[in-house]
Amino acid sequence: RLSCIRNNVWLACCGVVSSGLAVLTSFGLMLFCGVPFVVTVGNAPFLILGVGVDDMFIMIASWEQSSRKKEKSDVKSRLAETYAEAALSVTITTLTDVLAFFIGTWTAFPSVRSFCLYTGTAFVFCYIYTLTFFGAIIVLNHKREQGNRHWLTCMPVGVDKGQAEKSCLYNACCIGSCSGESSQTEGEHPMSIFFKKYYGPFFTNKWVKALVVLLYGAYLGGSIYGCIQIREGIDLRNLASDDSYIIPYYDDNDKYFSAYGPRVMVVITESVDYWNETVRLGIGNCTENLE
């Protein structure tokens, strides 16, 4: 928002903090329970941040919609309306994510199991913090707007004739709007107007809908073809950078040594006195006999 009162920068920052709290809580709980921390778990906070920010925008959008539905509604009814609209979407997305990651704990790979446990638990706490901590932050931010307070300093913003004669930039940053009038209500967000008045009607046109169906059919056909072409296995060349020595190594290995089959190794599992010359000769003779 351009208004210094309606700007929700701190609200967005608290949404990110909510995701961070979920990560800290889940990681602390898993470490307390003795779940091993592996390197792949370091990727989990980015997943939680993405889902948490998405839930944050859903909550804020529902709050804005509730203000337009009921002009003179109190905070409790607006928050109830917000949860009625947003909680279902947040619950469904969280439930599917948690289910997917907890199913991943059935794998036989310990590293994958730890990653799924950490991430799935973090999604649960992200859901809890979104519906509790972030809901309270929305109410506090609403009280700041009702008190006509600045978004950065939370100080009351006043309007007088001297301030109204200042520049547009001064009025927008210190009063509330370029006109010098600090209104607590604004019109619908431009992005919402675009999707409602232009994007939606464009896609409801019958020719556009037919085109969308054709494009989706082509996409579906390409996806089926791609699934048919998938082969099991992994090429280790794809795990290295383009200028790595690993790539020519595997090229030469396949070119000159692929016909010899896998290497055979001999492992001595018991303690051996390698300092004894007789023992070393015995190991050498054993190796020669195996060859």
From TrEMBL:
Pfam families membership: Patched
Organism in which the protein naturally occurs: Phaetusa simplex (large-billed tern)
Alphabetized UniProt keyword annotations: Glycoprotein, Membrane, Transmembrane, Transmembrane helix
Main localization (coarse): membrane
TM region(s), chain numbering: 9-38, 44-63, 83-109, 115-140
Coiled coil ranges: none
Domain SSD: residue ranges: 1-140
Gene Ontology CC annotation, any one: membrane
Protein name, as recorded: PTHD3 protein
Superkingdom in the source lineage: Eukaryota
Gene that encodes the chain: Ptchd3
Membrane topology recorded in Swiss-Prot or TrEMBL: Multi-pass membrane protein
